[in-house]
Design brief:
Blueprint (H helix, E strand, L loop, with lengths): L2 H7 L3 H10 L13 H10 L2 H29 L3 H15 L2 H20 L5 H22 L7 H22 L3
Helix pairs in contact: 1-3, 2-6, 4-5, 4-7, 4-8, 5-7, 6-7, 7-8
Length: 175
């Protein structure tokens, strides 16, 4: 695990503070500069968040690459309707970035709430991690008809599920 990822997460502090006050996610608040101290605190409080983010990035990248390859094959074979369907799935996967940003923001808000001893964001961070996992699982399931091999990708999705369960366990046991 690396503290570097969590230093990057610390850039979400302004968004997290807004979320903590208003209980509403807003993505148009600019990111602030990274903070090594806050990054370290986030790392120590919820290191499992890194696993969730890494497994999500791996699943998203692997699925997107496999579908892009399949789309190119459909285009070469002049199967344009299928290529369009796959293109829509790729766009769906690309749009998962907002959920990832929300998870990062709420992860930081969770740590800030613990530091400031205000607000209880256990449910928020767990549900956001589950939303992220369910979104990539849904994209994966919709993609199965177009994939040649789902074994490795299925394992990646399972690893993400395991990471989310570890995070939920950490959050449950952190009181």
């Amino acid at each position: 695990m690396s503290v570097t990822l969590f230093r990057d997460l610390s850039m979400y502090k302004k968004r997290a503070q807004y979320y903590l006050i208003n209980r509403k996610y807003v993505d148009d608040i600019p990111l602030n500069n990274g903070d090594d101290v806050l990054g370290t605190v986030i790392f120590l409080k919820i290191p499992e968040a890194e696993e969730v983010l890494q497994s999500f990035a791996l699943a998203k990248g692997t699925l997107s690459n496999a579908l892009t390859s399949k789309m190119q094959t459909f285009i070469q074979n002049e199967e344009y309707a299928k290529a369009e369907e796959v293109s829509e799935l790729i766009e769906l996967i690309d749009n998962l970035n907002e959920l990832e940003e929300k998870f990062k923001t709420i992860s930081v808000a969770y740590v800030l709430s613990a530091i400031e001893m205000r607000g209880d964001l256990e449910i928020d961070i767990k549900s956001t991690a589950l939303d992220l996992m369910e979104a990539i699982e849904s994209a994966f399931l919709k993609s199965i008809p177009y994939l040649d091999d789902v074994g490795d990708l299925g394992k990646i999705i399972d690893n993400m599920r395991f990471s989310v369960e570890k995070l939920k366990g950490r959050i449950k046991g952190s009181k």
